[in-house]
Design goal:
Organism: Scytalidium lignicola (Hyphomycete)
Strand order of the largest sheet: 17-15-14-13-16-18
CATH superfamily of the largest domain: SET domain
Number of strands: 18
Largest sheet: 6 strands, mixed
Strand content: 15-25%
Number of helices: 11
Shape: elongated
CATH class of the largest domain: Mainly Beta
Helix content: 25-40%
Protein name: SET domain-containing protein
Radius of gyration: 27 Å
Oligomer: single chain
Pfam family, one: SET
InterPro entries: SET_dom, SET_dom_sf, SET_domain_protein
CATH architecture of the largest domain: Beta Complex
Length: about 450
């Protein structure tokens, strides 16, 4: 997948409106390593100001060959007003980091020529194993097509991208994504914002979340993958999402699903970074034995063996099995109380302070339920002062406080209707964090609860 070639596959050329850039001299297939380059200047990324650093930069530039120095000085510099710090200005404009979490960056004569596009066709990365900066084709790149990378960290809304690019690099992007008609641009922004929102929900409670509410977190990842695929099948966020899904499966003892998710993550990272990258080498081992992961055995709720993958399924049915998707009821079909999407436990409820995209559709700051859900629980205790309060147990055996904030503080219900052992059903229930109690449910709309629920 990460093939490379000694034949020249790109030229450094003038690109209209952009200065110099890299242009494909022949068709470059998806996954091809376009370049692999050592830095000619190295700098600590976060300390671009002290005198010792400036002296170090000058020494490195002075040690370059005449051709290298000429190429370095011809790189774009958005800080031209400070002639005394010209070298530093070039580095601040062009330096590429050595990885995601390191404090060092460098100048690469060809890689630093690659221009930006929000719908980039190539991916940059630092390969720690070979100590080189690499660029790989995210998709097939046609002969004569400009090679582009994404300069920012997260693919955000158009307005946020334009503001960041102007602030950091002093240009306005006019790529295909930034030039969409207003209605398409708004839809794209909505999708990107939903991906970011899901990212927060997936990681919000860390390990506790994937242990206490694994199905809900898996559904978040499933929806995120669907949104990434709507963006395009080569989205760079997909491998990370598949790894999240693999870790959810591993933490709950599901080796079969973990293996498939890990395979998909490795396949994606091979395209992005090459088969010799640290991520590929690290996570390829999970495709053979996911039980080696540190999270394995945290719980065994979903216990499977690594080969417990159903046979004879088409791709759609395999995906439904993989993501634990529940089949929707047909019209007139009795409700299945085992369906956790419709009858969630407390740990699977949406949080009242988040517009959870699994439960709500939002537009113009308004959130509306996108479907129905019903929280069922058994009353194990109750009292009526200063308002009706119940202690209930949900389908997972979790004990939850339920406080009545209706106009009558719960007096709307006759005492005979509130008894231990009775079942309550709450439509559109939400997780509420009380200041004076454990998290529970705050009921404000009396029409959303049925006490007792009779079958």
């Amino acid at each position: 997948m990460s093939s490379s070639t000694t034949d020249p596959i790109y030229d450094v050329r003038e690109v209209p409106g952009k200065g110099k850039g890299l242009v494909a001299t022949r068709k470059i297939t998806k996954g091809t390593r376009i370049l692999s380059e050592e830095p000619i200047v190295r700098v600590p990324e976060k300390t671009l100001g002290n005198q010792s650093l400036l002296a170090s930069i000058r020494r490195q530039v002075d040690a370059l060959s005449p051709d290298q120095r000429s190429a370095f000085l011809s790189l774009h510099n958005i800080y031209m007003d400070d002639a005394a710090l010209k070298y530093l200005g070039i580095i601040r404009t062009n330096a590429l980091p050595f990885g995601d979490d390191v404090m060092e960056a460098g100048i690469f004569l060809d890689a630093c020529r690659i221009n930006h596009a929000c719908d980039n066709n190539a991916q940059k990365s630092w390969n720690e194993n070979i100590k080189r900066h690499t660029v790989h084709a995210l998709r097939d790149i046609e002969e004569g097509e400009e090679i582009t990378i994404y300069y920012l960290g997260v693919l955000n809304s158009r307005e946020a991208r334009q503001e960041a690019l102007q602030r950091k690099f002093a240009f306005t992007c006019s790529c295909r994504l930034c030039s969409l008609p207003p209605d398409q641009s708004q839809e794209n922004d909505r999708r990107l914002n939903e991906i970011l929102k899901l990212d927060g929900l997936i990681g919000r409670n860390g390990l506790m979340g994937i242990v206490s509410s694994p199905l809900q977190i898996l559904r978040y990842v499933d929806q995120q993958v669907c949104l990434y695929n709507e963006q395009g099948p080569d989205d760079v966020g997909l491998p990370r999402a598949f790894l999240d899904a693999a870790q959810i499966a591993i933490a709950n003892g599901d080796l079969a699903r973990a293996r498939i998710f890990a395979e998909r993550a490795v396949l994606g990272w091979t395209v992005l970074e090459g088969d010799d990258s640290s991520k590929v080498l690290q996570y390829r081992a999970l495709t053979q034995d996911p039980s080696k992961h540190a999270l394995y055995g945290t719980t065994m709720k979903w216990k499977t063996a690594v080969d417990d993958i159903p046979l004879g399924l088409d791709s759609k049915d395999l995906d439904n099995w993989l993501w634990k998707r529940e089949k929707p009821n047909r019209p007139g079909q009795p409700a299945d109380f085992r369906n956790r999407a419709t009858f969630p436990g407390f740990g699977d409820l949406p949080h009242e302070h988040y517009i959870d995209p699994l439960f709500y559709a939002s537009s113009d700051e308004l959130a509306r339920p996108r479907r129905h859900w019903l929280f069922l629980a058994e009353i194990v205790d109750f009292n009526r002062f200063p308002r009706l309060q119940m202690t209930v147990t949900d389908v997972d055996g979790m004990t939850v406080p339920l406080f009545f904030y209706t106009e009558g503080r719960g007096s709307e219900w006759e005492p005979s209707l509130v008894q231990k052992g009775y079942t309550v059903a709450i439509l559109y229930a939400e997780f509420h964090a009380f200041a004076f109690s454990e998290p529970g449910i705050r009921l404000e709309e009396p029409t959303n609860i049925k006490v007792p629920l009779q079958f």
